[in-house]
Design a protein that fits this description.
Radius of gyration: 21 Å
Number of strands: 13
Shape: globular
Distance between the termini: 29 Å
Structural class: alpha+beta
Strand content: 15-25%
Length: 340
């Protein structure tokens, strides 16, 4: 959905991609909005996505924003969650805590996590930033299990509610293995080409099992899986600014092997150690990833600041003109004055 002929319908974009990323960083715009804008252009407005969520045409789980019609493909996975003994043990030890969280949501939901007041019997153990964030971790677990659901947002903060108030009643789970095979097939249709297996990342999976047909990509080792329907399709590219969490680039290994494009998200690095910027956007030109845009949206100042355009290859005049036009289009869509 990044060729010259843009899609025109938001629902068809989400259905084709199978999921939008839920990463909410607003250095420019949340990734779910950037992914939609990169496909639809200026006709897309964030309110369109809010409307589909409110109408229950879409739903948000721990890994993505998805068509509600696909819920049946995820229910069996929810029922089987978690796969890890440590998390299962923590939930079993906190049955009273779980019930208290559900009671609060029953009485007062939907609520952001900071407004859910409940006490864990056993604290969440973590050496990272989740230590002692017991309510948030319980809500994350219950969301993955399908016991609670996201019911709106307060800014970028999820609002949690009982799942029965969000998900339609009477939906029967597709058996687990059949559901996984179907989801793999849909994911491959969205990606075109992917690995059968590999490292698991947070969010929507990036691998596709035995979906599609085996393929070999020259210059890379091992077997790929390809969607046969994609092989003979014509492609006329355009210039696109991508979210760092866009399906095209989220699998950094795939990105490097297919596009020979080096990229690291540097928002967690000290400023002095960044090469490309806090939330640099990969630049797609036709069928090549050619650079990164280092920019920031300052909504209070009403400005869209462009700090740098990093060229991985020397831009031609045509490339510079196309990239500049896309930067201007992004600033206009954000409703901000462009500062370069």
């Amino acid at each position: 959905m990044l060729d010259a002929e843009r899609p025109t319908d938001l629902m068809s974009v989400v259905e084709h991609l199978t999921a939008l990323p839920v990463e909410p960083t607003r250095a420019i715009a949340p990734s779910y909005d950037l992914v939609c804008w990169s496909r639809l252009g200026s006709t897309y407005q964030p309110e369109d996505l809010d409307d589909l969520l409110e109408q229950r045409d879409l739903y948000e789980d721990a890994d993505g924003i998805r068509p509600m019609a696909d819920l049946a493909l995820h229910l069996a996975e929810m029922e089987a969650w978690p796969r890890w003994d440590e998390t299962r043990d923590w939930l079993e030890a906190n049955e009273l805590f779980r019930n208290e969280v559900l009671d609060v949501l029953d009485a007062d939901g939907p609520l952001p996590s900071r407004q859910v007041k409940a006490t864990a019997q056993v604290p969440w153990r973590s050496s990272g930033w989740n230590v002692d964030r017991n309510v948030r971790m319980m809500l994350t677990c219950l969301l993955a299990r399908g016991e609670v659901a996201v019911n709106g947002r307060a800014g970028t903060q999820k609002k949690y509610d009982l799942a029965e108030r969000v998900y339609p009643s009477g939906v029967e789970a597709v058996p687990l293995e059949r559901a996984r095979a179907e989801r793999n097939q849909r994911r491959l249709r969205a990606l075109g080409i992917a690995r059968a297996k590999g490292t698991e990342l947070p969010g929507e999976p990036i691998h596709v099992g035995q979906a599609g047909e085996p393929a070999v990509v020259e210059g890379t080792g091992g077997e790929w899986r390809v969607d046969p329907a994609q092989i003979d399709r014509s492609f006329e590219g355009r210039t696109v600014l991508l979210s760092p969490f866009d399906p095209v680039v989220r699998d950094r290994v795939r990105m490097d092997q297919l596009f020979e494009f080096e990229y690291v998200l540097e928002m967690y690095k000290p400023a002095a150690k960044r090469r490309w910027g806090y939330f640099a956007l990969p630049i797609l030109y036709g069928d090549r990833l050619v650079g990164k845009l280092d920019a920031t949206a300052d909504r209070k100042a009403g400005r869209f600041f462009v700090d740098a355009v990093h060229e991985d290859v020397a831009f031609t005049r045509a490339m510079t003109k196309a990239v500049d036009a896309e930067i201007t289009a992004l600033a206009d869509w954000l409703g901000l004055a462009l500062e370069r």
